[in-house]
Write a structure and sequence with these properties.
By secondary structure, the protein is of the alpha+beta class. The chain is 16% helix and 38% strand. It contains 2 helices and 15 strands. The protein has a 5-stranded antiparallel β-sheet with strand order 11-15-14-13-12. A hairpin with a 6-residue loop joins strand 6 and strand 7.
Amino acid sequence: MQADASAHWVPAAVSKDILDGTVIPAALPSGPIAVWRTATGKIHANGDRCPHRGMRLSHGFVRGESLSCIYHGWRFGKDGFCEHIPAHPNLVPPKSINCGPLPVSEQNGVVWVASVEPASAPKDFSGYDALRSLVFRATPEAIAASTQGLEIDGGLEVTLGDFPAVLLLTERTSHETFVIALISAGTNPPDRLEAAAALEALRRGAEATGLVEAQA
């Protein structure tokens, strides 16, 4: 796949939320996607529609190194091509049957996905790892205003309780933002719980700020 200098990586999920042999729904600005991990731990992403009947592949299941649609069991490999159709077990599926594989990368405990292959790797937030993801019913502008965070390349520097953190913001709709919070790597479990609670409080503040802005 040829790299595209105008393409960019989108933080789509937290790595620990995708166990080996599972699939979850996620989204790019262009629409829904399915992110899945094989039985051997390899991460993949593709469009979230089975080319057969349009069922969401994120509702499907992973067996070994393949993703299967829950509706009729069509099975897809890491390259997006259909490998097997249970109703026609002797048929070699044509290469035209494809669920649209997407570039994917893991870094700092975050799964990054792109619509086309970017020319460079995802931004490296050295010293941080993922805390959790959350959906804010607020715009990125409202989140920045309510937190008084410092805008940096690729994120927003904030404080969660007493802990420095970075928020990765992806606007999904005009009133909804997907947020992944990063916290210093090596933070102990009790402090991570405290930071997660502070993130919830931050969400409530951002949503209140966004509501006031919408009513102004």
